[in-house]
């Protein structure tokens, strides 16, 4: 922003007349803090948002909860994405179905059992075929609540609460009875989020979440594009004032 403490500047023009220059705010480059609604974690590598839900639900209910927020149970495309997930602090509360030192949550894989002889044999599949280029987990640890009649088990990713373990990327994969209750991890595409934390649909105008309420942009692939900035003059007759952080060209005068 420009020098807002200067009311005007005077210069002598030709013929001795006074030329008056008003100082206005000058547009600055903006770095948007955007792309995910409040409570979601953004990962640039996949242009995705992630959120752990703490309400214990079975696998099928968790699937529906993720779908209601335009997402799905998380699958992973690369080790880097998984390491990002493991490094996050998910603000997980203590729940009856969660051990104090470790956390498990449903993710978007299922283990299909093909042989029940001396050891369980099978393979991982992506639960929803819309996911492309995902990696499959290694051989799982089998959960304690398994039924002999179940031929499909559901994936739980275990991460650890302690920071040293978390940042070393230690984790385990469990194949668990799908009707057990657990926290779960949803994943959705990044999105446009306006300055009041509302999600904006593709192609609509909005003011991006950030520190400039005078921007108007178009939402395109989760990014604000073709932005136009309004420039505001300082309020007249007011020496000290405060800008409204959410409303363009709205000021509060602080003079006595």
From TrEMBL:
Gene3D superfamilies: Mannose-Binding Protein A, subunit A. Pfam families: Lectin_C. The gene is Dgcr2. SMART domains: CLECT, VWC. Transmembrane segments: none annotated. CDD domains: CLECT_DGCR2_like (cd03599). This is IDD protein. Coiled coil: none annotated. GO terms for cellular component: membrane. The lineage of its organism: Eukaryota, Metazoa, Chordata, Craniata, Vertebrata. Residues 45-187 form the C-type lectin domain. It comes from the Eukaryota. It comes from Haliaeetus albicilla (White-tailed sea-eagle).
């Amino acid at each position: 922003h420009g020098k807002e403490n200067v009311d005007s500047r005077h210069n002598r023009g030709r013929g001795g007349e006074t030329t008056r220059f008003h100082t206005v705010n000058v547009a600055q480059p903006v770095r948007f803090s955007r792309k995910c609604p409040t409570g979601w974690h953004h990962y640039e590598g996949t242009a995705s948002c992630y959120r752990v839900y703490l309400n214990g639900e079975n696998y099928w209910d968790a699937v529906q909860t993720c779908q209601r927020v335009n997402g799905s149970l998380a699958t992973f495309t690369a080790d880097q994405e998984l390491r990002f997930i493991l490094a996050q602090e998910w603000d997980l509360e203590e729940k009856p179905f969660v051990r104090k030192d470790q956390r498990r949550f449903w993710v978007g894989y299922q283990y299909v059992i093909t042989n029940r002889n001396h050891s369980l044999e099978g393979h991982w599949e992506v639960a929803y075929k819309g996911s492309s280029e995902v990696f499959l987990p290694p051989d799982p640890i089998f959960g304690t609540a398994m039924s002999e009649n179940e031929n499909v088990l559901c994936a739980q990713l275990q991460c650890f609460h302690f920071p040293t373990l978390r940042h070393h990327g230690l984790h385990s994969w469990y194949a668990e009875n799908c009707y057990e209750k657990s926290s779960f991890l949803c994943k959705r595409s990044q999105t446009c989020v306006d300055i009041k934390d509302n999600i904006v649909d593709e192609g609509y105008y909005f003011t991006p979440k950030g520190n400039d309420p005078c921007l108007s942009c178009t939402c395109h692939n989760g990014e604000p594009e073709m932005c136009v900035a309004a420039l505001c003059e300082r309020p007249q007759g007011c020496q000290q004032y405060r800008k409204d952080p959410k409303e363009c060209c709205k000021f509060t005068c602080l003079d006595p």
